[in-house]
Design brief:
It is a single chain. By secondary structure, the chain is an all-alpha fold. The protein has four helices and no strands. It has helices spanning 13-38, 46-72, 77-103, 109-122. Helix 1 (13-38) runs antiparallel to helix 2 (46-72) and helix 1 runs parallel beside helix 3.
């Protein structure tokens, strides 16, 4: 009975270190590639585009660090959920905007006019 009612302290520190390294490197690489594609999308204002690209990296640090803080203070589990949700939302926005502009949207008028001006100066 004592074993069944024992307090669960979560994953060991060694397990957290191993899993956090996998997550830090893997997720960073995924968001780097997705962010690189998203930087080619036409999004204005530019500060919003920069914020969307930077936010997943902040969420990764927030998410992984909250794993360790949860061992100390259990309500940090909500931060784990929030960090994961923020990563998912940023990925969804970057992916949706990139794919829409790549496959369905015509080029913005600013880009078309710039291309016409370039052709006129060459010709």
């Amino acid at each position: 009975m004592k074993r069944v009612t024992e307090k669960d302290t979560g994953a060991s520190l060694a397990t957290l270190v191993r899993v956090s390294h996998i997550h830090l490197f893997g997720l960073t690489f995924i968001f780097f590639i997705m962010g690189l594609m998203f930087t080619h999308a036409y999004v204005r204002p530019v500060w919003l585009k920069c914020a969307i690209v930077a936010m997943p990296f902040v969420a990764i640090v927030l998410d992984v660090s909250s794993w360790y803080f949860t061992k100390i203070y259990q309500p940090f589990a909500w931060v784990v959920i929030g960090g994961g949700g923020l990563m998912a939302a940023c990925f969804a926005v970057m992916w949706a905007v990139t794919m829409y502009q790549l496959w369905f949207s015509p080029p913005p008028s600013v880009i078309v006019e710039r291309k016409r001006a370039d052709i006129a100066t060459v010709g």
